[in-house]
Amino acid sequence: MSIESVILSKVKESPFDTRELSEKLKIDYNKLIQAMKSLEYNNVLECKIKVSNEIVLTESGKKCLTAGTPESRMFYAIPENGIKKSELMKQFGREGQPTFGQCMKCGWIRSEKIETKEQEKEKEKQPQQKGKKKKKQRPDLMLFRKVEEINDLVLEDLKIIHDRMSEKLNKKTLDILKRRKLITTIQTKSFVVSKGPEYEKYTTTQKIEYQTCLKKGMLQKNNWKSHTFKKYNFKSLGVPTQGGSLQPILKVRSEMRKAFLEMGFEEMKTNRYVESSFWNFDALFQPQQHPARDAHDTFFMKNPKKAKQIPEELMKKVKTTHEIGGYGSIGWRYKWSEDESRKNLLRTHTTAVSSRTLREISKEPFRPRRFFSIDRVFRNETLDATHLAEFHQVEGFIIDKNLSLGDLIGVISEFFGKLGMEKFKFKAAYNPYTEPSMEIFAFHNGLNKWIEIGNSGIFRPEMLQPLFSGTRFNDYQEDVNLSVIAWGLSVERPTMIQYQIQDIRNLVGHTVDLQMVKKGPICRLGFPRKVIKEKKKEEEIKKEKN
Fold first, then answer.
1. List of residues 6+ apart from 160 with CB closer than 8 A
2. Which of 42, 386, 436, 450 is spaced 20 to 30 A from 23 at the CA atom?
3. What secondary structure, in 3-state letters, does 462-530 show?
4. Region labeled Disordered — which residues (predicted)?
5. Which of 170-179, 207-216, 364-373, 436-445 is least confident?
6. How many angstroms separate the CA atoms of 377 and 276, rounded?
7. How many CB atoms are located within 10 Å of the residue 427 CB?
8. Which pTM was predicted?
């Protein structure tokens, strides 16, 4: 018998509830609704939505059905010769004390005080030690069974609810079970189906087989006119389509970009993934023997191996600064190699973009500027739960005259404040191209601890002066204190914290859960998780009251 025939025969007897019929006859609910809607469209049936609140068992309640209630398990855990309360509490963990209270309330167990040898010694010493007040140690309790057998009323109530007969229980009993989180109320929707205006006609006349589309055979035989076609339902919403979904990193990146733009920053061009060692290291006053320039830490290019277009005048100034110094510095005191400087590599940080940008703006009239970049960088890292060979770096810098460490701290506080962080700490650090340098720490409300969020500093004169000296930079002189304050951080770490991801390999790569990408919430940096948890609790309380 088809589902349509079952529906027509049932509605002939009396109106019925779709969910009850599905459970009684074990019919797939979705298929039942599909057949019902088809008949409703042809006015054979009338359907009204029915919303009802149903009391069901929670996971804890289901556990009680199979393993018994906590109080019954505690009763049977007490041997005939008794057990110390402290030992029993260790067995039951967090639920030990409430369960003990429940057993005492039911009158299933009794307790006797027992004193340890230490407590007996303290009692003997008490008359001698006058005037000294010590904290009294609570005596341990010995627990014994008070009855031989128990009648677990809570378990019986849970069985009644499992059998969907909750109307037999009074409100007080249900409230107690809800407080113990053994039951909950859920809202269910179903349809009450009754006969429609076309029911008699549809069941008495010969059924017409409706065609849903024009088929090839109908055209070949030229009999399509003899068929009856089903009317299109233009009100039907159809199956929801799944469009593109933003990856969590892109959501966090978008929020960071928004913060920079709100502060008046300009975005730098970051389309050079392949960079020369000159712009990536040498222009930043990073010596050629620095460990970061080793093949173990950097991806060097095989083809093209060397860069050709590097400004000759700038290269000479950088070489001089490295070898003998200048601008108040004695340099690194080594023989600088042009061949080493021309090696191509995958950029290891976006500061290479900053050095190019500083060179470009040196050709324009001077004015204070603010720049930022967010893009990929590459390092020869060992892949693990917190490290990738490819990740995103955020960098911002401000160029002006006479900028100080106080300006840097103020701008950093403003930027990270827009990302939801309020408390900051700064720790002295070392970078080859900034002095002074600072590590940035912020207190994360969600994790309830201090975390490192980035690095910062003021660009050294040895890096900055060669980029600007000898250019047509109006109002610029070497004795003027031209300053650049900068800071940087990764995008992956804030993303892992925001979306509670423990392993970075589950965020990027072939192991990414696509459902996490599709169903992931919007990024709301600056919206503490404590507030979200409180709102969820309020919603749950409202649902329980309803």
1. 166, 168, 169
2. 42
3. HHHHHHHCCCCCCCCCCCCCEEEEEEEEECHHHHHHHCCCCCHHHCCCCCCCHHHHHHCCCCCCCCCHH
4. 116-138
5. 207-216
6. 14
7. 10
8. 0.54
